[in-house]
Specification:
single chain, mainly beta, seven-stranded mixed beta sheet, four-stranded antiparallel beta sheet, elongated
């Protein structure tokens, strides 16, 4: 059974920084894509950033230049460093991992962590 556990959310003033972590536990062969998504109140869940097993990254335009995604495959962990936070970054942040089982992939989601940016 694979579980994703997130940490690092909280309340921060505008202009501040937070670092989110998401660790996968269980018997895992390898992880293809890792990513962070977010959902603000009353809005649909949207992509924030992704990183492939080869290290290629992709960011939403709204977070480019402020957020940095990274991964540690030895720890099955993905990070999201968030700098210059804005009130509009307030949302529940979810990690997602596409786990490779050899002949197929399965997507797993974390439980979500709240990020609140005060103006």
């Amino acid at each position: 059974q694979v579980q994703l556990v997130e940490s690092g959310g909280g309340l921060v003033q505008a202009g501040g920084s937070l670092r989110l972590s998401c660790a996968a536990s269980g018997s895992i062969f390898s992880i293809n894509v890792m990513g962070w998504y977010r959902q603000a109140p009353g809005k649909q869940r949207e992509l924030a950033a992704t990183i492939t097993s080869g290290g290629s990254t992709n960011y939403a335009d709204s977070v480019k230049g402020r957020f940095t995604i990274s991964r540690d495959d030895a720890k099955n962990t993905v990070y999201l460093q968030m700098n210059s936070l804005k009130p509009e970054d307030t949302a529940v942040y979810y990690c997602k991992m596409l786990i490779d089982w050899g002949t197929y992939n399965t997507a797993y989601w974390g439980q979500g962590t709240q990020v609140t940016v005060a103006s």
